[in-house]
Description:
The structure holds two protein chains of two kinds.
Chain A: H1 13-44, H2 55-86, H3 93-116, H4 124-129, H5 141-164, H6 169-185, H7 195-230, H8 234-255, H9 268-279, H10 281-297, H11 305-328, H12 332-338, H13 342-371, H14 386-420, H15 425-433, H16 435-464, E1 481-483, E2 486-488
Helix pairs in contact in A: 1-2, 1-3, 1-16, 2-3, 2-5, 2-7, 2-13, 3-5, 5-6, 6-7, 7-8, 7-11, 7-13, 8-9, 8-10, 10-11, 11-13, 11-14, 13-14, 14-15, 14-16
Chain B: H1 11-40, E1 55-62, E2 67-75, H2 85-101, E3 109-110, E4 113-114, H3 133-145, H4 167-180
Antiparallel strand pairs in B: 1-2, 3-4
Helix pairs in contact in B: 2-4, 3-4
Amino acid sequence: xxxxxxxxADLSGGQRLAIKYFIGAMVLFLAQILFGILAGLQFVxxxxxxxxxxxxVNRMVHINAMIIWLLFGFIxxxxxxxxxxAGTELVGLKLANLNFWILSSAVAVVVVVYLxxxxxxxxxxxxxLINEGREYIEAPRWAxxxxxxxxxxxxxxxxxxxxxGRWSGISGVLVLDLIALAGIYLAGTFYSxxxxxxxxxxxxxIHLWVEATWEVLVGCIMAWGLIKTLGTSRHIVTxxxxxxxxxxxxxxILGLGHHYFWIGTPEYWxxxxxxxxxxxxxxLVAMVVHAVYDAGRHGFRSSNHPALAWFIAHAFGNFFGxxxxxxxxxxxxINLYTxxxxxxxxxxxxxxxxxxATINIAMIYMVLQKWRGNVRMSGQLVDRGWKWKWSLALxxxxxxxxxxxxxxxxxxxxxxxxxxGGSTWSAYFEAQSHPWFVQAMVWRNFFGYITGIGVVLLFxxxxxxxxxxxxxxxxxxxxxxxxxxxxxRPEA
Amino acid sequence: MDRQAPWWASESVWRxxxxxxxxxxxxxxxxxxxxxxxxxxxxxxxxxxYSVINQRIYYRMQQPRGYQIxxxxxxxxxxxQHLSEEEAEALVTLGKLTVQAKNCMxxxxxxxxxxxxxxxxxxxWLDPGWIAxxxxxxxxxxxxxxxxxNARTFGTDRRMPHLGIxxxxxxxxxxxxxxxxxxxxxxFPAEFSAIRQEGDL
Lengths: 492, 201
């Protein structure tokens, strides 16, 4: 193994497969940003690409690229950590590689159809072949079936590997979570004329993914990441993982009710949804405490500074984006006025970035460290690590800036369109053309460009970090603690 | 690390807690799902039959709930044709399929869900922007079939794109919108002021 040089031969089959998923994820991340910028521009210049590449297409690609890159990142993360966690080689590597190419080709075909066919006639065939027209799960039905098959293959790889190797608390939670993640997707794969029934099940997929199963999945990745970067003891991270799962699913499963306020569902959801979703931030606070406490306890001595920084960004981003921003408009008395305005968009941007983009980026830094020959990525990097530091800053400032701009637009809409204007079409357009709204959209675009620059810098860093570095990483020892008396090493 | 953790901080207690809490919440959710699905099935207590498109729909304040809900009025067949329940369902189905196939939800919101680039469609059938009952159906049809020429931008530059909606599809979409406006949405959207219809005070 040569330090500071990228060498795939140093990596195992599962790790090489993980890298493929991360590369796919980064391509889609870039697509997400580009189509997001286009859609943002159309708010300010509505004539831009009118009747050519309309807002609905750009916005669909923007959010779908995001969902798929995050999923690719999660799958990559699991393939990366599985052999280490199970203590054996990945079972079914050939099938897993084939699965990657099938999944990636399917994604490419779906996107090409989105961009060049865009819409179809009002028939069942359009939903099967072109676009299902349901936000976030627009993928046509044939792709739904493909996704389920691919996820089942992924599940087989994961479960069989742990069965062959060893089980742990982390892998137990992970495998059960993957069953739930795949099963819940099925709730979004049938057609209903009844929009209330349609949205009832649609939220099972959207909410129970992003506010339940995805959160548990990143909890598992975080637990493994903290063991690796800080040397936190397995006993501590596993206990925390169980606490997080108990609180996350205890609040999050019935927290689903906050999507059932206004879709025709009975009034009891106002109470149930309001109460349980108000509890949803609690596990996110626990995750922050856990991550920051552990990092402090180990004196921030980590084997991989960029990864640790992004893990911490994840803990805070998850808490603020999903927790605080979600809580701000989750009570029905407020949500009646904010539902379906830019409030949701503000929450969506900070939550998806804070909870999920961050942890995937952290995992990529973990991967790069090993790929470049277990190179040192702590302090005193060759170029003082300016690229990772600046991209971290630009991405966080960019997304926070967009979040604040959209929040202002959301406030303005709630007051002018809803409370004062009576929620009519005329009130909608009055709010959309109000200077406060227009200024917010201009600022959103500005911070969108900042985010875009951050992404470019991040990719540059991915391509260069650790290259030419000759020093090997110091792995933190498990159980090593920073105390007042100095560094306490575990007894051999 | 070798100190014995108190029982409430032990791994096994939290593992069991996680399993039990998840199981209990799932059981409650499944129970509520059965109850809710029964109530939101078309013809249930909150979502009317599709043949409601044969009647006038009002949006009126209801006490003691303290917000507006849809009220089903007298006969007012859509496009002047009284439809059976099956015919109405077929027309609304065509409309719903068109709404999905044209990707309406990535500009508009339906029941408040979707994108925020275009107005909410929940009560769009009742929107005062359609001026009067006598011209509403025609205005909606013309707009859907050629939104570029018949743009309704309310003084902005934001126009709906041309989506190739046929006259039959447009009628289906309008039937779907009329039916959707009859769903009891617990007062969403807030403070809505509906179009004046026959029978309004």
